[in-house]
Amino acid sequence: MLTNRVIPCLDVDQGRVVKGVSFVDIKDAGDPAELASFYDAEGADELVFLDITASSDARDTMVDVVERVSAEVFIPLTVGGGIRSRDDMRRMLEAGAEKVSVNSAAVANPTLIEECAQEFGSQCVVLAIDAKRVEEPALMQRSDGSYDYAEALWQVYTHGGRRATPLDAIKWARIGAELGAGELLVTSMDADGQQTGYDCDLLSTISAQVSIPLIASGGAGTPDHFVKAVTDGGADAVLAASLFHYGDLRISEVKSHMAESGLPMRMIH
Questions:
Q1: Known active-site residue 168
Q2: Which of 13, 45, 88, 130 is catalytic?
Q3: What is the pLDDT of residues 12-29, one digit of tens each?
Q4: What are residue 124's phi and psi, to 5 degrees?
Q5: Residues 11, 13, 31, 199: which is the catalytic one?
Q6: Which of 15, 90, 6 is nearest to 49 (CA)?
Q7: Strand stretches in the chain, DSSP E
Q8: Is the pTM of the predicted complex or chain greater than 0.85?
Q9: Active site residue 64
C-alpha cells in the first residue's frame, strides 16, 4: 500500500524562504538550506523548493541555492520556478533535484510537459497549478491579443499568482496528465496561508479527473485539515509552508494524527 506523504514547501525569493497569505503580504521565514536540513531530520517525506519570483522576474532558478538545499537532504527534492525548457530541467536535476515543477512556461507552451516527460520520464515532471475560484465569468485577454470569457470554476494563474489566464484549472489538470506529467501540485490561491483548510472541492474535482498523484497545497491549519485533504479531497500528498516554518505544527504531529486517522504513513522513530 502506498503511503501518504507530508511535504514542507520552501517558497524562496532572493535566496531566502518567504511566506505570505493568498500570495501577498510576504514575510521572511529563514535560510533554505537550514530549513531543508531541519525538515529532513523531522521526518518529512519530500521537500518542495519553489523560486517564486523567477518567472515574474524573467530570470532562471537559482542553481546555487538548489545545490545548497539538495546537499542538506536525503529525501526527494522537487524544484520549480523559472523552468522554461528541457535544458532548465536538466540543470535542476544535475543540481540535485529528483523532480522538477513547471507552471507558467507550461501554460504558455504545453508541449514542454511532453518534451520533458519524454526526455527525463514522467516521474520527474510535476505540473504546478495555481488556481483561484471564479465568482463570476471574467473577460480575459488571450496570448494572441483576443478576448474571451474564462469559463471556469477555478481559474489558472501564472507568474507566482500575478497573471490570470482563461484556463480552467480542472481541464488544465487533465491536459497536463495526458501530456505526461507524473504528478500535480495544486495550490488554492484562496486558501493559501489562511489556515482554514485545503480547498477539498477543488482537490476532489481534479482527483476525479486524473489518475496521477495529487499534492494538495494551500490552507493547512490543523492536523485534521491534512486528513481531510486525503479523505475528502482525494490527495495523495499534503504540502504546507508557514505552518511548519513558524512552528505552529511539527511534521511528527501531523503524521501521527494522520496515522491515527487510519491513513498509511511512513513513520520515523
A1: no
A2: 130
A3: 877 777 755 554 555 666
A4: -95, -10
A5: 11
A6: 15
A7: 5-13, 16-21, 24-30, 47-51, 77-80, 99-102, 125-133, 138-141, 147-150, 154-158, 163-168, 183-188, 214-217, 237-240
A8: yes
A9: no
